[in-house]
Amino acid sequence: MAYDIIGDIHGCCGELQTLFKKLGYYEENGLYVHDENRQLVFVGDLTDRGPESVKTIEIVYRLFKNQLALYVPGNHCNKLYRYMLGRPVQVKHGLETTVAELEALDQKERRKIYHDFMSMYDDAPLYLQLDEGKLVVAHAGIREKDIGHVNKRIKSFVLYGDTTGDFDEQGRPIRLDWARHYKGKTWVVYGHTPVKEPRWKNHTVNIDTGCVFGGKLTALRYPEMETVSVPSEQPLMEDKFKDFGD
Ligand SMILES: [Mn+2]
Q: Which positions fall inside the Calcineurin-like phosphoesterase domain (predicted)?
């Protein structure tokens, strides 16, 4: 099986549909299909900040339910899930846009979105091991020694990344550069930290090219190991991109 792994969407549904077409998928009965034996994989963070989070959930859910796509959760998915469960989460850092979209729906539509998103989240693994273990897809990455394992610490790393526990002056968690020290042969494809260009470091690729911040939406074709991007329709917010200086 070949895969098209899609980076953080954050409600940028127009760009997602443009990317599907560029990758050779076409619409059929509300689904996106490909004539070759390829499967879509979503690296998480479907919603928040962008214009169409609800529509993005629906498209990804339909693909997932029909076994046309795989999905792993991101930190924003985890928070939306906890919000839907009625847990006391802070409706900020982008969640407010998704909540506003949900509140604009009538009760029946809202119930359907809750059901669809929560059932997909419930059925998703924390991260994916594909191609006989040669490929891992994990939202914020994973350490080599943790591949094949799941516990609370690994869950926090995979969803939130390699953080110090400290925060910067804007209140954002300080993130460390795990990929720089990654020595595994397994390819790790991930997102989470917006970068201007896909970042190749050792056997890792960060495909979060900050679409919601005016960058682009990127897919990685596996096993070809080629990236395919479409430009963002959102205004550019230069300060949201991380420059690793490499
Ligand atoms: Mn993200």
A: 5-199
